[in-house]
Amino acid sequence: MSEPDWAPLTGFRVAVTSARRAEELGALLQRRGATVTSAAAITMVPLPDDEQLREHTLSLIEAPPDIVIATTGIGFRGWIAAADGWGLTHDLLTALGKARVVSRGPKATGALRAAGLPEEWSPDSESSRELLHYLVEGGIAGQRIAVQLHGATDEWDPFPEFLDELRAAGADVVPIRVYRWRPAPRNGDFDQLVSGVADGKFDAVSFTSAPAVASMLLRAKEMGIEDRVLAALRGEVHAMCVGPVTARPLVRLGVPTSAPERMRLGALARHITDELPLLCARTVRVAGHVLEIRGTCVLLDGVIKSVSPAGMATLRALAHRPGAVVSRNELLGALPGNGSDTHAVETAVLRLRTALGDKNIVSTVVKRGYRLAVDEERAP
């Protein structure tokens, strides 16, 4: 048997919003057959130029905290690197060394130990909730707590409830926002990507940080298309997140999300490869064939068939109710553009039949419309 001329993600369109390692994620998805559109949702504030981080660092040196919380390994290492650039590393580590030190997971723990700050405790689950419970149970009223955060923007912080609950328990919280981000520039590639999500031009959009999610929602609101973006993400455009923290802003808005078990870039690429065909592909048995409908193409008996956008729109509308008659006016409404002549439907069906290579797959029902010729023994 010959090898198939398609890959697991052939025919699927994936939007990548990553600011870091976007090329790596895009390459992993393209290798699996996906059509990838990449536009960074956020831009990074260079650490040496981050005056807010420098001011907070000096504040902790002058008044050392009682407790230090490291939430990410890369964020904590970035903080120490920034302090080194300002000539403050020794003073900062001396101040932090006087505090109780806890971490949110193994990567943060490794960064702490590398800096000579052994942790008092870290949850096996990497759960912020479990970390919060540990601290509150021990009593933190009146304690000054430095919380290293990763991926904040000027308008948005990760873990907002976590910080609020520390304050509610009586702690004086000092957020250390390492690697602050700003939304991507206006009227650029990112705006095009957001518009594409609103228009349903993607089968999935990937997020590797919660700030990227926040940036997309903020930009959609600024563009006046927030409702359309949310409707798309609740419908046919699937949100694929690297982990639960990244997904949280979407979950709060009732958007279904999907994430791998391990919060790693490679795991996200594998997860998209495994899940997207299950979520998006529609398979029907028609006229003695097995027809699988994907984002931009179809597989007919395992052979890839290139179909025009009008043909794909027609096929999706017919497959929405397999075997049922769909009127010409309904099909006209599904076609790209805002045409009013049902002759466009006849043309789209003719070209679809030619692309599929079997005119019997789409049946004409005289004076009523068209239907997929679903095999009777397979019909529901």
From TrEMBL:
Keyword Transferase set for record: no
PANTHER family, sorted: BLR5956 PROTEIN (PTHR40082:SF1)
Domain of life: Bacteria
Name of the protein this chain belongs to: Uroporphyrinogen-III synthase
Keywords of this entry: DNA-binding, Lyase
Pfam families noted in UniProt: HEM4, Trans_reg_C
SUPFAM superfamilies hit by this protein: C-terminal effector domain of the bipartite response regulators (SSF46894), HemD-like (SSF69618)
NCBIfam families listed in its UniProt record: PRK07239.1
Enzyme Commission identifier(s): 4.2.1.75
Ranges annotated as DNA-binding: 281-374
PROSITE patterns, sorted: OMPR_PHOB (PS51755)
